[in-house]
Structures are given as C-alpha cells and as structure tokens.
Amino acid sequence: MSTDRVVVVADPIDREALVRLGQGPCRVVDASGDPKSLPQHLADAWGLIVRSRTKVTKELLASAPRLEIVARAGVGVDNVDLNATAARGIRVVNAPAAATESVAELALTFYLLLVRGLSSSIASTRSGKWERGTHGHELAGKTVGFVGYGRIAREVAKLVEPFHATTLAFDPFVPASGDRTTMVPFFDLLQRSDIVSVHAASTEENRHLLNARAFEMMKPGAFLVNVARGALVDEAALLAALSSGRLGGAALDVYEVEPPMNRELLAHPNVIPTPHMGASTHEAQARAGTDTVDEVLRALRGEPLTALVPVPGGSR
User: Is 301 a catalytic residue?
Assistant: First the structure.
C-alpha cells in the first residue's frame, strides 16, 4: 500500500504504539521530542496525533492543508477546536476507554482518603506525632452521587459496590442507568450524597455547575471529588465552602487553570490536590497509545472508525 500519507505525532505516546504505527501504510514523523519543530511538519500531514500538550487550534489547522484526521490519545478533546475541524471536514477520534480503570481507581482512592481523614493522619504521623483517637468514618453505607454517568462513573459505581454504598447519578443524557445506580435530579443528588463525584464533560453550558448555590445544597460535611474537568467547579466558591466548614473536604485532580493558580485552595488542610494524573498510569498510557494508533490505522485502511468524536451540532 502507499506510504505517501504522513502522520505527525505531536505529543509523546507509548513507544510500542509508535512502532505499531510505523508498520502501517504511512510515513511517521515523530515531533514529540521537539514541540517547536511541529509547524514545519504540518504542511504535509495527513494525520495528527496529540495528547493534551498540543492545542489543535484554527491557526494550527491553517498550517496543515492536507490534514484529514486528528487523533487524541486520551478521552477529553477540549484541546481540539471541534468547530474548526468540522469546518474543514477533518475527522477527530479519541481513546475513550483507555483511562477508565485508572481514573476510576483514583476516584475511589480519593473517597477513602477523605472519608477516613487520612491526609491529616499521615501528615501528623510524619511530623512525629502519635494521634490514635477516634477518627474518620467508613465508606460502607455512604451515598455517592455522580455528576455525569458515563464510562468512568459506571466503573466507579462497580468499585464501590462491595462497600455497600448507595449510588446516585445525575446526567441529562442518561434517562436510565441500567444498573443499581438511581438516576435523580441534580439538586436531589446534592442533598442526598455524602460524596459528590464529578465526571461530566466540560461545556460552556455546565461551566461552574458546582458553584456556591450547589455547595449550599450539599449535606453539611459532605465531600467533593473532581476527576473530570476543572471548569465544572467554581474554585472560589469551593474554597469559601471549605473555609466555612460547610463542606468536609475536597479532592481535586483537575483545576480551572493548569497548573493551578489558587494557592490558598491547594494549601487548605481539607483539600487533597493531585496534578491531573488520573489517566497517567503506565497501563492507561499504553492503552491510549494503542487505541489511538489502531484508530488511525483503520482510517488509513479506509475501515469504519470506532471512536469518532461527534461534530458539534450534528453528526458526520
């Protein structure tokens, strides 16, 4: 088959996946080690593989007149201008299942850390103290409310089932869960949940969905966990709710601005902050590379695609 088509790899992907791509009917240009060299490679690019570092903007696309497909080695595509790609007829694909287990496990880890109050115990013991009084609670019997009930939230629901936790979910696009999770209205979920776990996609409509009003609706002492997108949470309102004691704590893997700028929020004793690492396990990154490359190879062979990202306002 012809290898005239050029696939540019803009961000690092799994090495084995890169080798797999090189065995396909294309010429691979690996620009991941030198981001400044990317523009010079785009003129001939048929395909472009990115993670989160490279922003696929209208300006970048203008440098790639032959581009036919953009592949995001991960789940979220908020670094891709979908309106601009749609206007050019450029297909966008992602790896929607690659990080499911890793992000779900991080969410569960956050639940246990928060409910047991382990962060303060770890810090105290590390400082030389020996504070063994009654502390924290069990996850067993608690109610976890999922804001957004897609692939990752469903996996978390499975993980908490052995803890005999009750699971609720709000998702306007999911009329029925099909499992033991009960679908409820948003404010009902806030009022009933011991842990509000954020898993929704980031859109203009749901920016700051978790805001001051939402925090006022939550149970006193409840916890917030966000492993989705930072824009879903109003960080100023969250800090106020934590400082007033309204909320018992929060665990955040994502932020409104990354790296995060709200130092007061990060330093709050009831906040567990991590550096957007939910999908950063070795296993998840290997799957992301393989799944993305397999989708690009299907496109090269003219086969049906399995992870095509919908065009805004319609379908292709």
Answer: no
Identify whether 315 is part of a domain: no
70 phi/psi in degrees, rounded to 5: -115, 125
Average pLDDT over residues 199-212: 94
273 three-class SS: strand
Residue type at 46 in one-letter notation: W
pLDDT digit string, tens, across residues 241-252: 999 999 999 999
Asked whether 139 and 165 are in contact (CB, 8 A), the reply is yes
pLDDT of residue 314 exceeding 70: no
Domain span at residue 24 reads: 6-98+282-300
Q: Give percent above pLDDT 70 in the chain.
A: 98
pLDDT (0 to 100) of residue 3: 62
Catalytic residue from among 59, 138, 161, 258: 258
Pair of tokens at residue 264:
């007061």
* HSE-CB of 147 using CA atoms within 13 angstroms: 30
Residues 19 and 122 in one domain: no
> If DSSP codes are grouped into helix, strand and coil, which group holds residue 224?
strand
Q: Tokens for 76?
A: 């979220």
Distance from CA of residue 116 to its chain's centroid?
25
CB neighbour burial string for 198-227, b if at least 16 within 10 angstroms, e if fewer = bbbebeeebebbbbeebbeebbeebbbbbb
- Residue 316, pLDDT > 60, answer no
Active site residue 276: yes
Active site residue 258: yes
User: Catalytic residue among 20, 151, 246, 276, which?
Assistant: 276
If one counts the domains in the chain, the total is 2
Sequence-distant (6+) residues with CB within 8 A of 205 are none
Please report, for residues 11, 124, 252, the alpha-carbon distance to residue 284 in angstroms, rounded to integers and kept in the order given.
16, 33, 19
What's the CATH code of the domain at 150? Answer: 3.40.50.720
- Residue 90 and residue 156 in one domain: no
In a domain? residue 308 = no
- Residues 50, 147 within the same domain: no
List 91, 229, 256, 295, catalytic entry: 229
